[in-house]
Amino acid sequence: MKRFRPGIVPTLVVALLLPLLVYLGFWQLSRGAEKSALLQSYAERRAAEPMASTELPHTEDPAFRRVRLQGEFDAEHSLLLDNRQHDGKVGVELLQPFQDRASGLWLLVNRGWLPWPDRRTAPQFTTPTQTLSFDAWVYVSPGATFQLHADPDSTTWPQVVTAVDPNKLWAALNREGFAYQLRAENGPAIYQADWPVVAMGPEKHIAYAVQWFAMALALFGLYLYLGWHNAKEKHHGSGHESTQHV
User: Fold this and answer.
1) H or E segment at 26?
2) Total domain count for the chain?
3) Are residues 83 and 167 both part of a single domain?
4) Residue 235 domain boundaries
5) Could you count the other beta carbons within 10 Å of the beta carbon of residue 134?
6) Under a CB-based contact definition with an 8 Å cutoff, are residues 184 and 112 in contact?
7) Is 58 strand, coil or helix?
8) Whole-angstrom distance, CA of residue 86 vs CA of residue 113
9) What tens digit of pLDDT does each residue of 61-96 get?
10) Does residue 43 form part of some domain?
11) Torsion angle of alpha carbons 212, 214, 217, 221, nearest 10°?
């Protein structure tokens, strides 16, 4: 049986890196499973009939549920969610407060994506003044609540933001509102509204997991090779010294 002499430093490196690589691989697999479950839930709830807006505040798990709305947009307090790309183009998403007539609740409705090619001029959009009826669905960001940071003391509207906390917005406007954004479905008052549910699909997580496991296997294989190679070199060196002494 061959002796195994990898050395202290390689052993320490492998002892530190190998568990980390394996952990990252299994973490990516778990993230892929979560994304698959998320997409399945999304597909089922998006296929269901829209519920009444009066049910929304009492729904325990509102993510991706469709809602039928009727009311008016608040054109004076528009939010432009920055750094949103669509088909390789840079732009923003337009979010506006919407007061639903049936429930009396304020909702933060995402009217879709707008191009913003020139930062020297503001994105162009219009807001309907009449009462509108349309369907929307509740968007809850995977892994975290949708956060929006607008400046509640600012008097300049529309505000360009990179993240949103709807509850802070409602508090600043002294309104009772819903804690999540609603993404409007395609309609006459809606801009580009074909959002992806997740930025990275489950297949990418699986691909990353394979990469991490491959790196772990390569590291362990290199460790074995180094250990056997060092033992062989030492064995040959010892044999050569014995011959010289004879």
Assistant:
1) helix 8-47
2) 2
3) yes
4) 8-31+202-245
5) 20
6) yes
7) helix
8) 8
9) 888 899 999 999 999 999 999 988 888 888 999 999
10) no
11) -130
